[in-house]
Write a structure and sequence with these properties.
Layout: E1 3-9, E2 17-23, E3 32-41, H1 43-51, E4 66-73, E5 85-88, E6 91-92, H2 98-101, E7 112-113, E8 122-125, E9 133-135, H3 142-146, H4 148-161, E10 168-172, H5 176-187, E11 192-197, H6 200-208, E12 213-216, H7 222-229, E13 235-240, H8 245-253, E14 255-263, H9 277-282, E15 286-289, H10 295-306, E16 318-321, H11 325-333, E17 341-344
Helix pairs in contact: 1-11, 4-5, 4-10
This protein binds zinc ion.
The site of zinc ion has 9 residues, from helix 2.
């Protein structure tokens, strides 16, 4: 039996995230085997390791945000060649369920997924997902290609926000996601992009990437700044990219009447938040949750990355060897200066 190393999550608790030796997949007819080169370990993974995850039942090999090299192609495939540098949209809607029939593909109840994620040395792409493999130009490093899925999720959040020219937009969160939102808001024509966070170096970077203003919430009141900047009306759009009850509550208080809130951050299981229903009612607020993405967003993300329309050098701050992932990944991710952590294989 040929083997490979994989990081397996057995549930909440650091000791339950372990590097193990398992059987290496061998591609059958119509399948493609990819040697993983880079894969992201994101905030959701760090949180799952510590406190569990509402949407995943262990054991799981995480890893949907990856890029690698095609090393074996099962019979009957012509458009994929060995040696190709690729990334993969790891999910495809079933096309048949309640939501797919409503053409709300992001909510598909039975999406076709990878059997195992890419926090492993190799990942096998089943026949139903081989058309989700996208070649990367040689000028695009693997870590940029691996960011495609994250960017697709953010693009869905952008669509829901409906940001347009001259909008005032507040982004709560100065991590990699928040800084990516800031860049996309600029591309969509927003003028007053205000990024709020706790880390001076990230906030400085947000200014370099096109933010109009930043607020360190440890030192200033975000509410006061937003009201001063908007003539006390409030912002057109608030994007929550932290994942805490407090920031979800705060988001609604920062909006003008008719404004739009997008909840992008996931929270630990069991989190509850409070709010004034009349704030939503009398101000006619529009509130959206953003989770997952569509194949359209994935293609948009590829295009933005391959044309270098998004600055990813300033987003991807940390890299770790795969062999150290289960020992150090959570701690590195929780360092204040870590915006995105990529695993190197
Ligand atoms: Zn479906």
């Amino acid at each position: 039996m040929k083997t490979m190393q994989a990081a397996i999550w057995y549930g909440a608790g650091r000791e339950n995230f372990r590097l193990e030796t398992i059987e290496k997949p061998s591609p059958q007819s119509g399948e493609v085997l990819i040697e993983v080169k880079k894969c992201f370990f994101c905030a959701m993974h760090a949180r799952a390791v510590l406190v569990g995850h509402a949407k995943h039942t262990p054991p799981v090999i995480f890893g949907r945000m990856f890029a690698g090299e095609v090393i074996a192609v099962g019979k009957d495939l012509n458009h994929i060649k060995e040696g190709m540098r690729v990334t993969v949209n790891p999910e495809k809607p079933c096309g048949e369920c309640f939501y797919c029939q409503k053409e709300e593909f992001g909510h598909c109840l039975n999406p076709i997924k990878l059997k195992t994620g890419a926090m492993a040395e190799y990942v096998c792409i089943p026949p139903s997902l081989v058309h989700n493999i996208f070649e990367l130009p040689s000028s695009i490093p693997y870590e940029f290609g691996a960011y495609t899925e994250t960017l697709a999720c953010i693009l869905q959040g952008m669509d829901l926000s409906n940001i347009t020219f001259s909008d005032c937009i507040i982004i709560i969160g100065d991590g990699g996601v928040g800084l990516t939102f800031a860049q996309l808001a600029r591309l969509r024509g927003a003028t007053k992009i205000i990024v709020a966070g706790k880390h001076d170096d990230s906030l400085q970077q947000a200014l370099a990437l096109g933010a109009y203003l930043t607020v360190n919430v440890m030192k200033e009141s975000l509410h006061e700044v937003v009201m001063a900047e908007t003539g006390n009306y409030g912002a057109d759009v608030v994007i929550e990219a932290v994942g805490s009850a407090q920031t979800y509550e705060e988001s609604l208080q920062l909006l003008r009447s008719g404004g739009t809130a997008v909840g992008f951050g996931g929270t630990p299981p069991g989190t509850k938040f409070k709010g004034d229903p009349n704030l939503i009612h009398y101000r006619s607020l529009k509130i959206y949750g953003s989770y997952r993405y569509t194949s359209h967003h994935f293609r948009q993300a590829i295009e933005l990355i391959c044309t270098k329309s998004i600055d990813l050098d300033s987003i991807i701050t940390h890299e770790i060897p795969f062999s150290n992932l289960t020992k150090e990944g959570v701690d590195i991710h929780n360092q204040p200066n870590c915006r995105a952590l990529v695993i190197d294989f």
